[in-house]
Amino acid sequence: PEHVLTMEDWGKDEIHGLLNKAQEFANQPSKLPNQRLYAANLFFEPSTRTKISFEAAERNLGLDLLHFEADTSSVKKGETLYDTVKTLESIGADVVVIRHAKERYFDELRHHINIPIINGGDGCGHHPTQSFLDLLTIKQEFGIFHGINVVIAGDIFHSRVARSNLEVLERLGANVYVSGPKEWMSKELLHRYVPMDKAVELADVMMMLRIQHERHAVKMVAGPDKYHEIYGLSEEKAQRMKPDSIIMHPAPINRNVEIADALVECSRSRIFKQMKNGVFVRMAVLSHVLEKQQGGLLT
Ligand code: CP
């Protein structure tokens, strides 16, 4: 089956094809399958946007949902991820979406599960559908990726969004920079580093990231107020952004930490547009994998 696990698996033409399909869904959201198909969303880590927008996307496509809750499932009795997914496949799921804390959880599944697996986020690893919705949002805004200055700022080290986006944006021709605490960047990224004061003047896209407290084994680099002052996008810093530049954030947001409360819904912000686009790219991804699996599935 065709799985959607990392952005690295996608060639440029395939990425643009997927974004075009997502844009078609944005223009005309409903498209029904010509047979009954089941989707199961297996979320072993918390989620609001990814889980609910997959549900919306599945319902928009006319798929039936097989409900799964990790906390009330036999995972609690020790059943493995592999046996859980194999069980869903046996019961009749046609596609599974999985979010799991283990980085690259999908390596043990990809060659043994015979239905498409869509990665809804693996630990600090990858988040391909977030990346697709970010790409769609940038493409809608600027039409192209080539030459666009994207600054990814904040908790880079723990961010699967940063990892997925860095690689694909660079491959599509954007100039990708990083900002935030250097302690939260690998050495290989330091040549892309720009301090926030410079970043806000340079960026066409300021992509702010949440501090992932749940993944921090070490002490925070600064308290929330200090963090906001040094590394956050404050109202004062936002005033120095270029006239047509935009603010993005995958959310959830720590208001007044990485981004000022007043900027979350300001005219530059595309944060809620990103969430809306999440439904369309997930429809496109589901439709893509099911068409490959079933052949000419959707009417
Ligand atoms: N952006 C994102 O993945 O949000 P959730 O964790 O709420 O799904």
Short characterization:
This protein is an alpha/beta fold.
CATH fold-level assignment of the largest domain: Rossmann fold
* Average pLDDT number: 93
Give the second-level CATH assignment, the architecture of the largest domain: 3-Layer(aba) Sandwich
Radius of gyration: 19 Å
Which shape, going by the Cα principal axes?
Answer: globular
Using the coordinates above, name the CATH class of the largest domain: Alpha Beta
CATH superfamily of the largest domain: Aspartate/ornithine carbamoyltransferase
> What is the terminal separation in angstroms?
21 Å
Bound molecules: phosphoric acid mono(formamide)ester
The helical percent reads: 25-40%
H and E string? HEHEHEEHEHEHEHHEH
Q: SS-based structural class? A: alpha/beta
Number of beta strands = 8
Major sheet: order of its strands? 2-1-3-4
**Largest sheet at a glance?**
4 strands, parallel
The structural domain count equals 2
**Count of helical regions:** 9
The residue ranges in which pLDDT falls below 50 over 5 or more consecutive positions are none
Classify the beta-strand content into a percent band: 5-15%
Task: Give the helix/strand layout.
Elements: H1 12-27, E1 38-43, H2 49-60, E2 64-66, H3 81-91, E3 95-100, E4 117-122, H4 128-142, E5 149-153, H5 160-171, E6 175-179, H6 196-202, E7 205-208, H7 224-230, H8 235-238, E8 246-248, H9 271-294
Parallel strand pairs: 1-2, 1-3, 3-4, 5-6, 5-7, 7-8
The structure holds phosphoric acid mono(formamide)ester.
Describe the structure.
L-aspartate binds at residues 77, 160, 210. One of its GO terms (molecular function) is aspartate carbamoyltransferase activity. Catalyzes the condensation of carbamoyl phosphate and aspartate to form carbamoyl aspartate and inorganic phosphate, the committed step in the de novo pyrimidine nucleotide biosynthesis pathway. With 299 residues, the chain is of the alpha/beta class. The protein has nine helices and eight strands. Helix 2 (49-60) crosses helix 9 (271-294) and helix 4 crosses helix 5. The chain is globular, with a radius of gyration of 19 Å. The protein starts with 11 loop residues before the first helix and ends in a 5-residue tail after the last helix. The mean pLDDT is 93. Bound molecules: phosphoric acid mono(formamide)ester. Residues 47-51, 121, 130, 250-252 line the site of phosphoric acid mono(formamide)ester (CP).
